[in-house]
Amino acid sequence: xxxxxxxxxxxxxxxxxxxxxxxxxxxxxxxxxxxxxxxxxxxxxxxxxxxxxxxxxxxxxxxxxxxxxxxxxxxxxxxxxxxxxxxxxxxxxxxxxxxxxxxxxxxxxxxxxxxxxxxxxxxxxxxxxxxxxxxxxxxxxxxxxxxxxxxxxxxxxxxxxxxxxxxxxxxxxxxxxxxxxxxxxxxxxxxxxxxxxxxxxxxxxxxxxxxxxxxxxxxxxxxxxxxxxxxxxxxxxxxxxxxxxxxxxxxxxxxxxxxxxxxxxxxxxxxxxxxxxxxxxxxxxxxxxxxxxxxxxxxxxxxxxxxxxxxxxxxxxxxxxxxxxxxxxxxxxxxxxxxxxxxxxxxxxxxxxxxxxxxxxxxxxxxxxxxxxxxxxxxxxxxxxxxxxxxxxxxxxxxxxxxxxxxxxxxxxxxxxxxxxxxxxxxxxxxxxxxxxxxxxxxxxxxxxxxxxxxxxxxxxxxxxxxxxxxxxxxxxxxx
Length: 480
What we know:
The protein is an alpha/beta fold. The chain has 17 helices and 10 strands.
């Protein structure tokens, strides 16, 4: 059992606090779980890789993370990767990723849960921290346990409040509108041949499931849609092909919520309930409740480029994700994890290097406005929320260029697949969600850029935008 420091000679308030804290905690030797998530292609893997590499490099090059207080104040002593024995989940492949970025190439995207621990040793600034550090002769330390997981999994929390019939009706209403109706054409054609009252057949259920999954993948990969449920149909992680996955929405009439035994509707409803119990609830009970800090990455630029349907879909997905940070009494999440756990959540618009510096505040403002209404509920639920724009890796440079007699800011980079750099006037990032009549012409001209060559040795670090500012918001209080 860890020793307890006797501080009864201090003020009564401090003495009372000391009774609840171990010597190591007072000295700052603690662990904080930082969860990193975001929807597909938001840059989670690159974010975690760059964050780790820059923390490891800070001792050699503190100018790489000057806005992180413990670095800017020259209190950082060292940062090292924690031993693998501390990991409860599959290890995050930091070394493989950094070697791939040295080629240079972008690393493979997140497919499931993984984690990595970074131990940060530093000189504390708090009175108790300095006192204990002097007594023990050791610096303070904080192990940052970084957990990487697909943001699609957070889209499933609202399912906990729905029956299978309710989810089917809501899903099909969405499926029959706008772009989705065309993307889901094959699934809807098969659905027209299947009714919830017909006899349950395994092959019929599996065929509907496969056709529905094909729609989800096409909607995400070719059309940039984000609000796609169930999220695990897109990112199954280690679960594989469990039979309770084999369901899809059926055309259930209003007013019907139960199905006769032995029907296709009953089979689908049974699997939907098993999915909620075995996948959704288990993720929140086994993992989510252990996170105390969370960053959600959002590719706002990609949503703008993909058009109105994709942009509106991203807003729906953000609203669903924010369900995970609403802890009101009696709410879905409170029933799963018995109260609030995450006390700081940061939403970050990624790929800020793809627009000139004068546009980056617009990027953060747009994300703030996209999530403005639900954000108010987050603030009222004891979780601190902030929004920023960042780039985990700077893959462009900034220049000015004369266009139609005006000097404008442009970005210079090498598009994916090209062997030379080019200049791009990307256009203007709106600070508010565009009006319906404003989608007639593209807002932006932004390609996907190749990464710069990265030195895999943790010495110089990786050029970034606001990575240190993000970490300062999330962990400043734990690095004092």
